[in-house]
Structures are given as structure tokens and as C-alpha cells.
Amino acid sequence: MGVRLMVVDDHRLLAEALASALKLRGHRVLAAAAPAAGAAELVISRAPEVCLLGTATPAEPGIFDPVVRIKRERPQVAVLVLGPVPSPRGIAAAFAAGASGYVRHDERIEGVERAIMKARAGEAAVAPALLQGAFGELLNPAAQPDDEGQRLLQMLTPREVEVLVRVADGEDTRLIAAGMGIAPSTARTHVQRVLMKLGVGSRLEAAALAARTGLLDRAGASGG
């Protein structure tokens, strides 16, 4: 028995191709709309059994707000997120918003159909390989090459890290020297080296940069 479906995706060609393929398999596809921004209103007004909701950025904050609204106003509608290979955070965010499952954009039509049938039956619809990949990443997280805080921390010596923490706490040169048991001139030299390595012109800028990048949190973790 066919399922009453909606396909909503920013990529119109993808949405229309998927809708056509599902129609050929005996499903009733109510609409294939491009703008994700209007997805919630469209789904709420048409009330399908299952909605395939496309997203290109599953880890972006607020990306699943339409799912939250759909489930609030039409709780009987099962929402399947259609997206790229997600991070564990992306999968978690989708389910936290109320989605019934997650389907990759490059999934075969048979896999999409299986997910649809599971979602309509009230079951969680996520491919085992996708879950295995997510759990693998959670257990063995990959290094983040774009982690600015970690990069900056590696540029500083342990003593310079301590100086930066004290600068961020508002200590002047005299207090830094007394707290570290070094001469004020040595403390001043350490501060200047920290500023130079971080590429900033003042102690205030150094403290702000350290806070913004999470460098202070990492320094605390590595030191304690």
C-alpha cells in the first residue's frame, strides 16, 4: 500500500527526481517543494503520512527548527531527514528535534523506501552503517584541523600558557611575577612573547582571543 508523502529539499531537481521515483513505486507524493524555509507551513497544511525533509548542513544550529514545528503542530507526521553523511551531532540533533530517521542523499531508492515504511510504522529509520559510523566517530573522534584554540595552544610553551591565563585573569606584570616566582622583567618578556605569538597588540586583545577560541578552557584541561 502506497504512502502519502511530501518531498521538501533546497535542490529542486533532487526533490523532483526523488518524488518521481517514489511515484513509480506506487506512493502518492503530495508535493516536491524547493525552499526549506517554507517546509513547515507546507507540511502542516498538507499533513502527509511521511515527509522527506532535505538539508545540506545537518550540524548547523537551528537547521531542524522546521521539524520541531511540524511535530508540534502535526505530531502524526513522520519526518525523515534527507542529507549528506552526518556527524554524530547531526544525527542527534535530527532525532532531538523529533525526526523519525535520517537518510543519506546518495541512498538507493530501495533504502529510501525502507526508511519511509519504517517511519510510517513508528520505527526509527537509520541505516546501520550510518549508526556504526556515528558511534565510531564518537568513540574515536578525529582531530579537528580547524580548531583555532588548539592550534594557538600548541604555539605557546607551558610557561607562556600560564602567563596568558594570568593575563586573562587581569593580573598585571607585578602580580604575574610574584605568582610565578620570577623577576618582573622576565614576566614582561613572557607577556610580550605571548602577544607576538598570538598576533595581537595588547593584553586585552590576547585575553579576548583566548576566550573566543576556547584556548583558556583547553589550557585549564591540559594543566589540571
Automatic annotation (TrEMBL):
Record Pfam families: GerE (PF00196), Response_reg (PF00072)
Give residue ranges for domain HTH luxR-type: 149-214
Keyword DNA-binding appears in the UniProt entry: yes
**What domain of life?**
Bacteria
Alphabetized UniProt keyword annotations: DNA-binding, Transcription, Transcription regulation
- Using the record's annotation, list all stretches that form the Response regulatory domain: 4-120
InterPro entries tied to this protein: CheY-like_superfamily, Sig_transdc_resp-reg_C-effctor, Sig_transdc_resp-reg_receiver, Tscrpt_reg_LuxR_C
Q: What is this protein called?
A: Response regulator transcription factor
Give the organism the record lists: Streptomyces violaceorubidus
